[in-house]
Amino acid sequence: MKRQDKKNEHLKQQLKDLHKKFDELKLDSWEKVEAHDKHMADVYIELAKKIRPLKLPNQNNIAVLGSVSVGKSTIVNSLLDKKLADVGAGETTTRTSVYKGNGLQIFDVYGKNDEKTYMTPESICDLKSVEKRLLVITSTVKDITKLARFLDQLNLRYTIVFNKFDLVDDEEQQQLRQKIENEVKVLELKCCEKIYFISGKHPEKFDDWNKLVKHLRQ
């Protein structure tokens, strides 16, 4: 076990060294990394694939990802049925926050408005350690396309959650559902398992909330 831990730390250090190069080259997105040096990007992915996940005690481990203002904290609080995550905290969190309740363990993974912040060795390890990953959006799948494709390359399955669906006019909801589902098909997001349309603030408004909760407990 110690040998495996040592190997994991060595892999993480290699990833950190590459990540530092990305910063030095001012490559602020995975798309730019691939465009600048495809070989370096491939090496990063291969190293990331070798990172060993953490052994977590709870089987219902969930990572929540998404840009600022998509309502991640509201979703977390509703899933736990208690106020634990700070709502409207912006980008103040600089590490993964862990919340427990209702038989769930939720990892609010640190990330700014681009997928590169999810590419750190620590975040990759967190993302590989959980069973479910929620990518939260409020307008279009294109907002998380780069992050989704990064997860695709790591063969990590995820669920897209359209939050604040209650702010969409009733007569436009079905049309928006079709639009989002079509975007996933057109963008060929191979590891997308499901899509849910919810209101984290008013979970009782849409049946998809109960479906989401059931999915997270499976």
From TrEMBL:
UniProt keyword Coiled coil, yes or no: yes
Molecular function GO terms recorded: GTP binding
Name of the protein in question: G domain-containing protein
Keyword list, A-Z: Coiled coil
Domain (G) ranges: 62-164
InterPro entries: GTP-bd (IPR006073), P-loop_NTPase (IPR027417), Small_GTP-bd (IPR005225)
Keyword Phosphoprotein attributed: no
Pfam families: MMR_HSR1 (PF01926)
Coiled coil feature spans: 1-28
